[in-house]
Amino acid sequence: LGEEVTPDVKGKLTVQNAMFRYPDLPKTADNINIDVDYFYDGRQMDNTTVDVNRFHIEFGGNPVDMTLNLRTPISDPFINARMIAKLDLESFSDLIPLEDTELKGKVDIDLDLMGNISLLEQEKYEDFKAQGKLLISGFKYNSPDLPKAFGIETANLEFSPQYMALNSFNATMGKSDFALEGKVSNYLPYALNDGIINGSLTLKSNTLDLNELMGTETTEESTEVEDTAATEIFVVPTNINFAFASEINKIY
User: Fold this and answer.
1) I want to staple 165 with a disulfide (CB 3.0 to 4.6 A). Which of 32, 34, 158, 220 is the partner?
2) Structure confidence by residue, pLDDT tens digits, 165-196
């Protein structure tokens, strides 16, 4: 063994028909079945493999299924992944402790990825499988950590090898409303291989009350807020290339 050679590691994780439940709550997370194989090659790390053959769990009757196969993670990562989930978030209050927190809404996830990252870098999108959707409706989250409740009437995010398309996103927070749409491209090389992510987003809003969103009081007659927060430098990552446009009718 030396600086470039480490021990090989081979393992397997199996869980069959497991469950858990918090005390004093009526619902359980059950039918938990997990089958994972992994191999780490300490001499040639590119031979490392990860296989999530099965990952299934039901959160109070809300099923989540995932699979994953990873190959050649160093030279040219190959990924084969699938995730399907249908969640009724309101039922989670009967499953996990959510003290002083309101959570509800429907979430539908269906994602399917397969291919080598090099195909995306070469813009051979037709050879890389990447499709899916994320749908949200009737979402509401309210907790003491937020100045106002946050809600999403509808959200529709569509995936393809070339881009993620935000077809609709309609949300509210207190008096403020947000409607977003746009596209983000090159997201897979960005997420998996430090590529540059590109995007264009458009925001439309009838009213934005920034004072309310920051937890300060505001009125129609008085809209100035004293800036008492300490100034800090925020460094924008260099591998993000975004165009953003907004159309706001009234802002406080």
Assistant:
1) 158
2) 999 999 999 999 999 999 998 887 787 767 88
